[in-house]
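Here is the promised in-class demo. Please do not try to memorize the tokens; focus on the logic of going from shape to residues.
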């Protein structure tokens, strides 16, 4: 690239510019730009009416989406007609010459605001990976300052480690470079306006262009711009074109034979010239912002380099639209709506094989589409944020190729037996939320096949299932339930399988409460699905089986002495380990009302077992296995679980840490059985854990410390797993408290809203259910429901939790649970408002 001056072109008004023009750049919001983007982006929030064919398993082209390639969170994916693909990246150079451009979980510092459809995205990235944090140093200082509370070896270890770690931390901070990256999509969805702002002096960044997954393309420099072309992967006869137009001239740049050559050249080495990749290098001072625009099209895009003030106007308008047009909230728990929206938007990824969006799972943000048990929560959580994202995600699960060792089926992984039940639950919730049968119809045949295969795990043929044998390996004895190393599965015995589907694993002797709860859940959901689909014979079969599992589990797995559900060996002895799976019969709807009361009041709310400021530990607090993963120091008032540097927080995941899918399962069960007061409190405590990590570190980790106030990472148990998608299930509990579909009983189109026990006054807005957009505000003296901009329900004088709310043109029917006397008003579409008074407790109302 030459350094000759290239005159700055006008950013607006150039004839033929792709996706850019005065009309596409509103001054008071991003409504015009966003409306165009919605029609083409993978996460666009347009949707059909109930029963219509979806406009998205595949998406329209061309489109531009920031951060939708695996962990390319500072970059953007551009897809043209025929599936021609281009990737723009923002690279950040460290003092040691390393380029941070992908796999950057540890480098994320701030997430959001951002929109799930890619209309706006903002992240901050740092060269400081936060592997050494002030809490680590404080822990070692605490050990040194309180030698009477620690062993001599621990004090000596802390004394030796602290000086070196303090020097390392100081060096990291002195060499830190930090940037803020922003994107706004404009026009027809094929163009992005971007900005990179340096938050430290002497910050080197790169604008890099290549193909996202090593496809064929050719790039060239055109003055200070980068252009590119690539054949369509689905239609090779069609060619896609790309252009990047920066607002400032680069310090240097060029085109290279590969990404490796580009990296070498950008970091001071030699890189072979070529056409496979291109990069522009900039050195920025603190506060300096580099703006650019980039577009994809069927013809070479003609772009104006952005004037800084024009780019800032577009970005500000798009940022303002995030809360206005997407999930948002306020209040102690309701503000988690913004965090969940941003977290799931961050983890939205693109399936290059099926051309859809999906929610990327954990392991530091990677792993692609995960079709196991946990991924069902991603669909449930995403449904609050974006209907298209949730629907595409679950559709992708049922189109996924089976692993090589799987029984010849597509869909949820068969090696986790409850993947079928949990994905059935996710599909059913998409139906109850949106009324659309499309995914339900797609999933039903596969789910029936799973159901029919499950009896191969009934070792003794008595109608209840035993856990499959996973061997003695660490990380998998409870893998059939996603429970990995839960101590419940420590002592089962292998029993050779007779017959079966061809799955090579043997049986065991442990009749599992959790597995049989999911077995019942699957039969119940298939019963409901069959009813919707008009399959009467199927519905009768599944309903009968649900009743059978309910009867058998209550006869054989209820421990009368301990007054809870426990797993049991085939010889009749009990598995005495107490974990939250004792509450799973609530989730499946198979606990009796009396036993549900015992479980909640005597066990869940007992602080010696499960209750506490943070809930719910993966092993009961008074169980011998609790915090049995490593040495602890019970004398230390500051670090109950910390033993020495390098252990982070010591409650190992299955021996005490709170796991979001487990929390969500218990919450759903408690809510299903009508314990509205307990459900609200449980949700509030789960959300507090989530927001603790989010507010402090902008993380949404895989697991949480069950004890608040720990100084070693506080709620984040493993700092490598900072962006786990199903972590959002912690906060979604409070959001579902405020408003939700009802997946269990009554008319599926009825909704639930209001709360008896979330702290303070909370609100949530832009929730889409059954063709309407809702907002809710719920507090100690007033609860208000707004539908499509109009107030339709108001309760004053007390807190209320409403179920089965059905609004007609002339009135409404619902059940209400109030914590005192309340005046209720309903505002139908036609006619006068209608009102009534209800007392404390439950009342059925028809107005």
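The designed amino acids, position by position:
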């Amino acid at each position: 690239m030459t350094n000759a001056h290239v005159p700055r072109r006008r950013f607006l008004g150039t004839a033929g510019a792709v996706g850019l023009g005065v009309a596409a750049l509103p001054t008071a919001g991003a409504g015009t730009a966003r409306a165009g983007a919605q029609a083409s982006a993978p996460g666009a929030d347009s949707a059909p009416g109930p029963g219509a064919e979806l406009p998205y398993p595949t998406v329209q082209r061309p489109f531009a989406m920031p951060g939708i390639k695996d962990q390319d969170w500072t970059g953007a994916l551009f897809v043209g007609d025929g599936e021609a693909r281009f990737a723009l990246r923002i690279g950040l150079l460290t003092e040691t010459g390393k380029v941070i451009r992908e796999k950057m979980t540890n480098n994320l510092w701030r997430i959001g605001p951002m929109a799930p459809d890619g209309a706006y995205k903002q992240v901050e990235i740092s060269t400081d990976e936060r592997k050494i944090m002030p809490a680590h140093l404080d822990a070692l200082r605490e050990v040194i300052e309180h030698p009477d509370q620690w062993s001599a070896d621990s004090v000596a270890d802390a004394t030796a480690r602290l000086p070196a770690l303090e020097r390392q931390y100081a060096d990291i901070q002195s060499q830190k470079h930090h940037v803020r990256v922003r994107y706004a999509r404009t026009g027809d969805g094929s163009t992005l306006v971007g900005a990179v702002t340096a938050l430290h002096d002497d910050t080197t960044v790169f604008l890099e262009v290549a193909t996202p997954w090593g496809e064929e393309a050719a790039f060239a420099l055109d003055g200070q711009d980068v252009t590119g072309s690539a054949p369509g992967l689905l239609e090779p006869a069609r060619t896609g074109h790309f252009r990047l137009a920066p607002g400032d001239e680069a310090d240097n740049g060029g085109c290279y034979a590969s990404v490796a050559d580009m990296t070498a050249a950008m970091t001071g080495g030699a890189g072979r010239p070529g056409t496979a990749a291109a990069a522009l290098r900039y050195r920025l001072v603190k506060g300096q912002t580099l703006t650019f625009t980039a577009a994809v099209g069927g013809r070479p895009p003609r772009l104006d380099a952005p004037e800084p003030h024009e780019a800032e106007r577009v970005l500000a308008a798009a940022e303002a639209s995030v809360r206005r047009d997407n999930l948002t909230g306020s209040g102690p728990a309701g503000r988690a709506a913004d965090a969940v929206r941003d977290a799931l938007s961050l983890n939205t990824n693109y399936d290059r094989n099926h051309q859809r969006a999906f929610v990327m799972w954990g392991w530091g943000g990677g792993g692609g589409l995960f079709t196991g048990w946990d991924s069902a929560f991603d669909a449930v959580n995403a449904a609050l944020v974006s209907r298209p994202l949730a629907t595409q995600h679950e559709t992708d699960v049922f189109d996924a190729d089976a692993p090589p060792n799987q029984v010849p089926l597509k869909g949820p992984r068969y090696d986790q037996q409850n993947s079928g039940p949990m994905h059935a639950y996710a599909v059913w919730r998409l139906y109850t939320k949106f009324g659309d049968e499309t995914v339900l119809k797609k999933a039903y045949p596969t789910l029936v096949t799973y159901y029919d295969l499950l009896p191969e795990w009934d070792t003794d043929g008595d109608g209840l299932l035993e856990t499959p044998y996973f061997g003695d390996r660490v990380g998998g004895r409870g893998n059939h339930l996603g429970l990995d190393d839960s101590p419940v599965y420590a002592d089962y015995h292998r029993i050779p399988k007779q017959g079966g589907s061809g799955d090579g694993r043997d049986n065991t002797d442990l009749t599992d409460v959790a597995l049989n709860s999911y077995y019942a859940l699957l039969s119940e959901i298939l019963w409901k699905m069959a009813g919707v689909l008009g399959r009467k014979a199927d519905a009768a079969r599944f309903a009968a089986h649900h009743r059978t599992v309910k009867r058998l589990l209550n006869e054989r797995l209820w421990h009368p002495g301990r007054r809870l559900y426990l797993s049991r060996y085939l010889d009749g002895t009990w598995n005495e380990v107490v974990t939250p799976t004792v509450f799973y019969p609530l989730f499946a709807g198979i606990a009796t009302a009396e036993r549900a009361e015992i479980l909640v009041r005597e066990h869940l709310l007992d602080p010696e077992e499960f209750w506490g400021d943070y809930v719910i530990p993966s092993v009961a607090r008074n169980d011998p296995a609790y915090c049995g993963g490593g040495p602890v120091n019970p004398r230390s008032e500051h670090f109950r679980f910390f033993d020495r540097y390098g252990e982070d927080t010591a409650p190992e995941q299955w021996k005490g840490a709170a796991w979001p899918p487990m929390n969500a399962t218990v919450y759903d069960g408690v809510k299903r059985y009508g314990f509205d007061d307990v459900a609200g409190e449980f949700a509030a405590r789960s959300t507090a854990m989530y927001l603790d990590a989010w507010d402090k570190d902008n993380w949404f980790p895989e697991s949480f410390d069950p004890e608040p106030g720990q100084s070693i990472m506080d709620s984040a148990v493993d700092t490598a797993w900072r962006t786990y998608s199903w972590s959002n299930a912690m906060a979604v509990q409070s959001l579902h408290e405020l408003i939700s579909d009802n997946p269990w009983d009554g008319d599926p189109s009825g909704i639930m809203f209001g709360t008896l026990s979330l702290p303070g006054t909370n609100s949530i807005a832009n929730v889409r259910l059954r063709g309407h957009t809702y907002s809710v505000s719920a507090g100690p003296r007033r609860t208000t429901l707004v539908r499509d901009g109009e107030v339709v329900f108001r309760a004053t004088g007390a807190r209320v939790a409403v179920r089965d709310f059905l609004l007609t043109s002339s009135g409404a029917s619902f059940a209400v649970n109030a914590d005192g006397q309340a005046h209720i008003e309903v505002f139908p579409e036609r006619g006068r408002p209608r009102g009534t008074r209800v007392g404390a407790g439950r009342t059925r109302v028809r107005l």
